[in-house]
Amino acid sequence: MQKCSRILITVFFFGLYSNLSVASKTDDIRILIDVSESMKINDSSDYRISALKMFNGLVPEGSKAGVWTIDRYVDMTVNWGTVNDAWRQAADVGAATIHSDGVYTNIESGLSRASLGWEEADADTRRSIILLTDGSVSISNDATTNQVSRQNIITKNLQALKQSGVVIHTIALSNNADEPLLKKLALETGGSFQKAEIAQNLHRIFFKSFERVTQPDTVKLTENLFSLDKNIRAITLLIFRHKHSAPTLLYPPGSSPMSLKKPGNSVWRSDAGYDLITIKNPITGVWTIDADTDPDNRLMVESDLKLNVTGFIPYMMPGQPVQINVELHDLDNKIIENSVLQFVDFNIAHTGIDDLEQVSKLEPASAKSDKGQYSYYIENGLEEGTHGFVISADSRIFNRSKRFDIEVQWPVVVRVDPGSDPGKYQLSIIPREAYLDRARLRPSVILQAPDGHRQDLALIQVGNDWRAEIETDQDGVYQAFIKIDSSAAENESVSYDLGGFPMIGMIRQPILQEAEIESTIATEPALSTVVESDSKSETILKVETAVAPGITKVDKQPDWTRISIELAVINIVFIILAAGVWLFLRDEKDETGLRLVQVVENV
User: Fold this and answer.
1) Contact call for residues 486 and 442 (beta carbons, < 8 A)
2) Is the residue at 566 inside a domain?
3) What angle separates helix 85-95 from helix 47-58, to the nearest 10 degrees?
4) In a domain? residue 308
5) Exposure of 307 in the CB half-sphere (CA atoms within 13 A)
6) Which domain holds residue 478?
7) What is the pLDDT of residue 578?
8) What is the mean pLDDT of residues 149-178?
9) What is the C-alpha separation between 296 and 204, in angstroms, rounded?
10) Are strands 345-351 and 125-133 parallel, antiparallel or unpaired?
11) Is 365 helix (H, G, I), strand (E, B) or coil?
């Protein structure tokens, strides 16, 4: 009871100091939107507008933000400035002017214009660019000019943005988007790349980008219930709605329900597909949501009591070790008091490529200097694919969580495609431009047979890809062990061991020519097998024609006329013999004769 009182007192003091929080990094977010005419096809319903308005409501108050559109020229659609109520209103007006009448997609100028004022690094600001496009770099009708502009982005824009500490998050809205370039911008700046298969997904994708940019603290939603503690100054609740969903209702503890029509002290942003609800100074206690549940629904909170998580990077290689460190902070200071920590459970939920969730406990640091730090270590790394993580700190009085995604990829794509015949394969090694210099890729492959024999596999270069034809001659599993040497974006040498890629082998029978088949059939004798029945005193002759091993089909057709004549003669002889036997047995009266008559009649 005394311990419970101590934690209540400690949490109470957290609330007293909420107005003394130390200033942390300020977000500065610049958004670039493609308005080329191809958007008339890829975003005919202007989901960009609705998604951007949702983003305007999500950006934390006090942050800096602005929106630019990309065409032949670059226009500032939403003036860059400090986010407040006036900025949000102006941003909504600017979002409504987004169109699809552009001719070109000048990404080079867009990055230059949006990054004005970022010439020098700033340790107090978290700088982010969100780039949405459905095409490739286009500044003229000349392909060479466009290629030069694309190269300028890589050699000039990207390097300058990296030096000023900018993180770029890119979104592709069609299969025609320059995915290698977009992923390269994200990968080299520590950002993320997402692809919208359809424009209707832009709401969720913009939210994922926001979540990666700001890394908000969230409170757990359990069956549309959530609990708010005294440390929370404001909440932002995002509810994704389906097409025919009923209006969302929000029930505070002991109060009347809130809705879009009766918001009370809440502010609602609602559009097709979502409700975004903001409440300042919310009531402490358990709240209820009357709406469809959705895995992307979030309850984000503003509080001095928050999680500090390090160790996550958006992209990594398979097998690369992962160490996650977590601390609980108040007023940007790590909490180390046992009176608090002993009542807090630190967990990590990992959803792997099989979509199964595994929850593990975070272990406290052993070193005294690291007291208050909790860690999770994945020694053997992660499998190739997308992995989701939720870090949570949960006590009897409060809970906080953060979400992270990791894309695990090799820097090359390896394909093993079946050939035209069984046991034959084509191996392809395709470099990912975002990771490697394609021109300097040097792969090596060792092919291991089921009996353990190894041999170097000869590779040929086809464009930027490397290929090999594989023909197996043993039953069992073959393995192609692949290593690659190349240079990364910064031109340093890199080497990767990709391990083994399996394929099923088979014994290949020699193919006989037609002359060999006819010769084999002519010389191979017929086999006669005598089978004697136990139930009857009869003998059956069974004639089988032997076929040479490995021959599955003979084109020569049987002579059905000759066979029919032979069968007729055999039947006539059989009838004559049967009649003679019957006449002979008719005169015999002994027991033996009667049994013989029965045998013949049975036949």
Assistant:
1) yes
2) no
3) 170
4) yes
5) 32
6) 412-505
7) 63
8) 96
9) 8
10) unpaired
11) coil
| pLDDT number for residue 440 | 83
Q: Residue 533 is which amino acid?
A: S
The domain boundary residue, chosen from 505, 532, 549: 505
Percent residues over pLDDT 90 in the chain:
71
Based on the fold, state whether residues 142 and 184 are members of the same structural domain. yes
Question: What is the C-alpha to C-alpha distance for residues 196 and 203, in angstroms, rounded to an integer?
Answer: 10
CB atoms within 10 A of CB 389: 19
The mean pLDDT value for 596-601 works out to 38
Residue 354 sits in the same domain as residue 446: no
Question: What's the CA gap between 19 and 50, in Å, rounded?
Answer: 35
Tell me the pairing of strands 442-448 and 493-505.
Answer: unpaired
Provide the CATH number for the domain around residue 468.
2.60.40.3340
- Is the distance from CB of 54 to CB of 74 less than 8 angstroms? no
- According to the model, what pLDDT value does residue 493 have? 78
Same domain? 49 vs 162? yes
Mark whether 75 and 49 lie in a shared domain: yes
| Structural domain count of the chain | 4
Is residue 527 a part of any domain in this protein?
Answer: no
DSSP state of 229: -
User: pLDDT value at position 564?
Assistant: 58
Decide if 325 contacts 374 (C-beta within 8 A).
Answer: yes
**What phi and psi values does residue 215 have, to the nearest 5 degrees?**
45, 60
Lowest mean pLDDT across 76-80, 285-289, 387-391, 418-422: 418-422
Residues 53 and 68 in one domain: yes
Q: Are residues 365 and 497 in the same domain?
A: no
Looking at every residue in the chain, the average pLDDT score rounds to 85
Amino acid at 578: A
Q: Give mean pLDDT, residues 28-36.
A: 98
CATH number of the structural domain spanning residue 83? 3.40.50.410
Per-residue pLDDT band at 63 (split at 50, 70, 90) = very high
CATH code of residue 348: 2.60.40.10
- Rounded to the nearest 5 percent, the helix, strand and coil shares of the chain are 25, 35, 35
User: What pLDDT score was predicted for residue 565?
Assistant: 61
